[in-house]
Amino acid sequence: MEYFLQQLINGVTLGSIYGLIAIGYTMVYGIIGMINFAHGEIFMIGSFIALAVFLALAALGITFLPIVLLLMVIVAMICTAAWGWTIERVAYRPLRGSFRLAPLITAIGMSIFLQNFVQVTQGARVKPLPPQIQGGITLMDSPNGIVVQLSYIQIIIIAMTIVLMTAFSLIISKTSLGRQQRACEQDRKMASLLGVNVDRTISLTFVMGAALAAVAGMMFLLYYGVIDFYIGFIAGVKAFTAAVLGGIGSLPGAMLGGLAIGLIETFWQGYFSVEYKDVAAFSILAIVLIFLPSGLLGRPEVEKV
Amino acid sequence: MTDTTSSASANRPEGAERLSEERRDAMRGEPPFAEAPSDDSRLVRALKEAAITAGLVALLTVFFFLFRTDIAVGGLALTLDPALWIIAVAIAFVGRFLLTYFVFAGEKPTIGGWKKVASTAARWPIGKALGIVLLAIAFTLPFLLAIFLPSQNRYLLDLAILILTYVMLGWGLNIVVGLAGLLDLGYVAFYAVGAYSFALLATNFDLGFWVCLPMAGLFAALWGIVLGFPVLRLRGDYLAIVTLAFGEIIRVVLLNWSDFTGGPNGLLGIPKPTLFGLEFSRGEGSFSDFFGLDYSSTQRFVFLYYIILALALLTNFVTMRMRKLPVGRAWEALREDEIACRSLGINTVNVKLTAFATGAMFGGFAGSFFATRQGFISPESFTFIESAIILAIVVLGGLGSQLGVAIAAVVMIGGIELLRNLTFLQAIFGAGFDPTQYRMLIFGLAMVLIMVWKPRGLVSTRSPSAVYKEKKAIGGDLVAQGEGH
C-alpha cells in the first residue's frame, strides 16, 4: 500500500511534466494539423536555459531560492518562446499550404539541428545539478520501513502544472486570443475572412507551447538533476504519445494522457522492470488507439467528402 | 432555395453581380495581412528590421553562445564567451540589413503565396535519360573507380555500397509513403528485423547469406503484417506515432533481451556472402583461386556492391511492376482519396497491408545485407534517426518518384560523408575546430532548407500509373498525396 502510494505520487509528478509538453503538441496539432517534431527539443532547450540562468544567478551571488526559481521560470519561458517563434517562422510558415509531409520533414530537420546545436555549443556531456529543493512532507511512516514522502519539489511541480493548466484553459476559453485559436482550429480560411490574423495566431500558439515546454524543462532539471542534449527526443515522443492517447487537439486530453503515460511508466518501473517501461507505455498507446481510435477525449473524426 | 436567390439577384441593381464576383475573387484564399506601408525610407526600414533580427538572435543565442556550462571540480561552472555571441549578433544584423536593403528592395516578399502549378511540359524524357545514365554509371562504377581513383578505391566503393543501401531503403519506404500514402516513422524496425533475423539464423543454424536473405525478408514482411493489422485502421498521424512507437519497442527489446539478441553488445561473426559457394578470402576454394586471379580485398567489396545494386534494382523493378497491377493502382488511388476507394469497393485494409508488408520486406532485405556487410550488428544502428533519414530521402526526393529517391539518397548520404572530410576548415577556424561535430548540425539545417526551397521534393513532377484518356504530368501542387486518411 505504501509502496503503491509512493509510486502514485511519483507517477503524477512525471505525468505533470509530460502533460505540460503534450499541451504544446496538442495545440499545434489542433491548429495546423502537423506533428511538431521539434517540440521535444524545445523542451530540452528550456531546461538548458534554466540551467544557465541558475548558474549565472549563482555567479552573481543571488541564492535566495524563490527569487532564483522565479527568474529561472521567467527567463526560460521568454527565451524558449523566442525559439518556438523562430522555428515556426523559419521552418513551418514557408511551408504552410504545402502538403502535409513537408512541415514534418522540416520539423525532423529542425529537431536534428537543435540537438546538435546544443551539443556543439554546450558540450555532449551530461550536466548534473545538485538537488536544490530538498525535504518534503512525510505522509505515512509504516513500521516496516517504507516511507511515503511527498517532496517539496513534487509539490511545486504538481502545483505549477495545475496553475499553468488552469491559466491556459482560461486563455483558450475566455480571451480573444483563445477564441481566435479555436476559430483557426475549426476553419483557417473562414477565420481569416472574419478578420483573424491567422499567421499571428499560429505564431502565438507556438510561443505558448514553447513557454509551457520551458517550464516542463526547468522542472525536469530540478526534479532529476541531470540533463543532456538528448533528453528532448524521448520526452518528446512520450509527450506526443500522451497527446495522442488523450485525443489530439484536446487540452484536457493532453493532461490526462500525460498523467496516464506517467503513471503507466512509473508503475511498470516499480512493479515489473525498468528496461521495458517505454515498451509498456507504447503498447498501451497502441491498444488504446485500436479500441478508441480518436484517443480518450478526442472527438471522433467526421469524414467529409 | 435556388429560386429565392435567383429572384433576389434579379432585383439587384446593375453591376452588383460583377461587384460580388470581384469581391469573391479578392477573397479567394487567405487574405494577405500585409502590414500597413510605412513612411520610412528604405534605409530606415532596413535598419529597423536588422535591429529586430539582431535582437532576436541575441535572445536566442544568449544562453548558448555567451554562456557555456562546463563540468568543473565542484559541480558545474559557467564560462563566458562574449566574442562568439557578439559576432553572431553582428552577422545577423549585417546579413539582415543587406538582405532587406538590396534583395527585398521593393515591396515585402510574399511568403507562401500562390505558386504557379508546375508546368505540364513533358519532363519525362530528361528524367528517363538521366535514369539510364545513372544506371550505366552504377553498373560500371567499380571499374570506373579502379581505373580513375585507384588510391581511394576501397573507401569510395564502401561509400557507394552505403548509398545504395539507402537508395534501396528509400525505394522500399517509397512503396509505403510515396505510393500508398501511409506515413511510417518506424521503417527502421523492419530494417532491424531483417538484420537480426539474418544474423540469428546465420549464427545459430549455420545458414548462408543466400538462404537467409529471403527468410529475413519474409520475417520482416510478417512483422509488417502483424504490426499493420491492428493499426492500419487508424488515421494518418496515429499511424505515424504507432509506427514510431513500434520502432522504439523493437529497439528496446533488442537492447534488453540479452540472451537472444546479445543486448547492447550486438551480434558478432555474421558470415560473409559467397558466390555459389566461393568465398572471398585467401587460399584454397576461394573466388580468386577458382578464377585464377590474384587475391585482393577489393574483390569482396565489388561483390557486395553488385549484390546491393541487384537488390536495389529488384526493389525498383518490383515497385514499377506493382504499380501496373491492380494492387499498385489501388495504392495510388488510396493515397489520393481513401473514401473514394472504399466507395468503389476496394478493401482498404488489405491494400494498406500489402503496401506495408511489401515495404517491410524490402526493408528486411536491406537489413540482412547490412548485417552481412558489417559482420556485426547492434541496436545502436537502428535508432529513430535512421528512420528519419530514410523518410527524409523519400520526401526530399519527391514522393512516389523512383529517380528522385535515388538522387536524394546520393545527395544526403554522400553529403553527410563529405561533411566528415571538411578538415580544411580547420585552417580557417583554428585547430580546435572539429568538423565531424557539425556534420549532423549541417545535415539538419540542409533538410530544412531543401524542404523550404523545394517542398515537393527534387523531382516534383510525376505521372500517375493509370490515366484516363490522355497522359498528363501532374503538378505536385495539385496532388493531395501523403494524406494517409
Automatic annotation (TrEMBL), chain A:
It comes from the Bacteria. The keyword Secreted does not apply. The chain crosses the membrane at residues 12-35, 42-62, 68-87, 99-118, 152-172, 202-223, 280-298. It is a multi-pass membrane protein. Pfam families: BPD_transp_2. Keywords: Amino-acid transport, Cell inner membrane, Cell membrane, Membrane, Transmembrane, Transmembrane helix, Transport. It is found in: Cell membrane. InterPro entries: ABC_transp_permease (IPR001851), BCAA_transport_permease (IPR052157). Belongs to the binding-protein-dependent transport system permease family. LivHM subfamily. This is Branched-chain amino acid ABC transporter permease LivH. The lineage of its organism: Bacteria, Pseudomonadati, Pseudomonadota, Alphaproteobacteria, Hyphomicrobiales.
TrEMBL record, chain B:
Its main location: membrane. Keywords: Cell membrane, Membrane, Transmembrane, Transmembrane helix. Residues 1-10 have a biased composition (Polar residues). InterPro entries: ABC_transp_permease, LivM-like. It is a multi-pass membrane protein. Residues 1-37 are annotated as: Disordered. Residues 14-28 have a biased composition (Basic and acidic residues). The chain crosses the membrane at residues 50-71, 83-105, 126-149, 155-173, 185-202, 208-231, 238-257, 301-319, 388-416, 436-453. It comes from the Bacteria. It is found in: Cell membrane. Coiled coil: none annotated. This is High-affinity branched-chain amino acid ABC transporter permease LivM.
